[in-house]
Design goal:
It contains 14 helices and no strands. The protein is mainly alpha-helical. The chain has 2 domains: about 1-90, no CATH class; about 95-245, no CATH class. The termini are far apart.
């Protein structure tokens, strides 16, 4: 029952306020690298985590960044907000994701792939930011759902199906899905209302940012890989997906 998950959500650590401040900077649109650095340095743990992510092999930096100023200058605000959100996700990835047939590394690959795809599909600056941020975090509840499903003795879900289709499988098996639980997590963390509202209604596909989030989850699976049969249905996205590899 979803009530069991709500209890677990209420035990989660709060979101660092620094993330909200970074988002405010982005929308204020009148900032410089010193402003970004000053906000991030309020949270020494976040500084350390961002540098850890930035220096990971995934980004292939030419040299190691030792100071947050270097990361700010190299990546920019949008990417740093994603790094900050990734530190929140990383705290939860110690849980068992085997119900979805993936591990922590694959989950992060999936989150990054969704964010990149959503950003590439949206045109307006605000749409790009809201769609990519929401896409990055939209499946965060899988870390809680997986543990609950495993406790119930349920068999794993096929990780190669599209994320939107996976929602339907979850509803059949559990009576609720990733989006429903993620929305409760977003509310608990007091995320920006634009992010909450987008996640709540993106399957309507009636705005550019909703379309961006929908197709980010329609074309990718739980491992962050393209779903081949989806490209047959939506061939217009193949050039974009190839550019993101």
């Amino acid at each position: 029952m979803i009530e069991n998950l709500i209890e677990k959500i209420e035990q989660l650590p709060p979101i660092p306020n620094v993330i909200n401040q970074l988002q405010d900077l982005y929308f204020y649109d009148d900032y410089n690298t010193s402003d970004i650095e000053a906000v991030i340095e309020q949270d020494p743990n976040l500084v350390a985590n961002i540098l850890k992510i930035a220096n990971s092999p995934y980004y292939g930096l030419p040299r190691e960044f030792l100071h947050i100023r270097q990361a700010v200058a190299y990546f920019g605000l949008e990417q740093l907000i994603e790094f900050a959100m990734a530190t929140v996700v990383d705290q939860l990835l110690k849980l068992d994701l085997s119900f979805y047939g993936i591990g922590a590394e694959e989950f992060m690959k999936m989150a990054r792939a969704k964010a990149k795809l959503a950003k590439s599909l949206a045109q307006d600056k605000a749409d790009r930011f809201i769609a990519s941020s929401t896409a990055f975090l939209s499946d965060i509840s899988k870390v809680l759902i997986s543990n609950y499903a495993l406790e119930q003795g349920l068999s794993p879900i096929d990780p190669s199906i599209a994320l939107n289709e996976m929602d339907e499988v979850e509803r059949d098996l559990l009576g609720f899905d990733t989006i429903e639980v993620s929305l409760k997590m977003f509310d608990y963390w007091q995320f920006d209302r634009a992010i909450v509202e987008l996640l709540d209604s993106f399957k309507q596909k009636d705005t550019p940012r909703k379309e961006a989030l929908f197709f980010a989850r329609e074309l990718l699976d739980a491992k962050g890989e393209m779903v081949p049969e989806k490209l047959q249905t939506y061939p217009q996205f193949e050039p974009i997906l190839k550019s993101l590899r």
